[in-house]
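Example (one chain per record):
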Amino acid sequence: MKKTELYDLQPAPQDKRLDEILVKENPENNLYTAALIAGDTGREDYITVGPKVKLHVKDYGEGKPVILIHGWPLSSDMWEYQIDALVNSGFRVIAYDRRGFGKSTQTWNGYDYNTLTDDLQTIIAHLQLEDVTLVGFSMGGGEVARYFSRYDGAHVTKAVFISSVTPFRLQTTDNPAGTPRSVFDENAEKIKADRISFLDAFGKKFFGVQDNVVSAVLLEYYRMLGSLASPRATLQCAESFAFTDFRKDLAKIHVPTLVIHGDKDENVPIDSSARIAVQLIPNNTYFIYAGAPHGLFYTEREKLNTDLINFLKK
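Predicted structure:
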């Protein structure tokens, strides 16, 4: 069979997707990536969720839909080590940039969890998704939890919390394991004074650089992703995940749920998050990653991908 060269690529017939032409009809061809560059325009890059508010969306693969909700202050680009594995395992993967982050509209307001969850619901409704798995990392776990209390988990059949901020980050009289408000206030002042310096220090703790091999250039890359976020969104979302109580939200989850957390997480300590959350979620599977930091989507990527895919295929 003749190997297709890049200059041989022709526009795809309207009744066929490029992956069908290049993979199914020409299995020896290795230019699938080139075909995507050439322009498979079947999926939307942006979805409008409100007046003058558009969210950037990645939408790849075929099969049951998995929505990946990124952490603070990153973007959907953080999921690059999961997207390929999930698509190759037969899932449709949708990863979007939260408003104010990545390539999405940088609004001035709308960073409370009700609005952020309304954005998620709009994506699900717009794409007419069914049998959805919601996967929330860190701050993204809040949207997953709130979706069940606000929309009764409509169209969702599984949920996943990875290094999640749930159930409640703030220390209060009825939540003594939480973090004192003074810590969050201090972080906010550091962000206002020198946001990029804050992100630099934050990233080192995020990936647990003292215990994990993380290259300097990778740290710079994730610092760059954080720097692209709106300064306003960075501060407003930090308040939202610090001060929002998700305990009642978690109790309303009625689908099989996977909870994964590292026991060396310094950003969201396991004792005040996952260990309490699993007592509130009715039907859950709980994995503790020994020695793992907050950013385990990179440091434990192979293990995470295996556990996530196994859960999705059950």
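Caption: Residues 1-42 form one domain.
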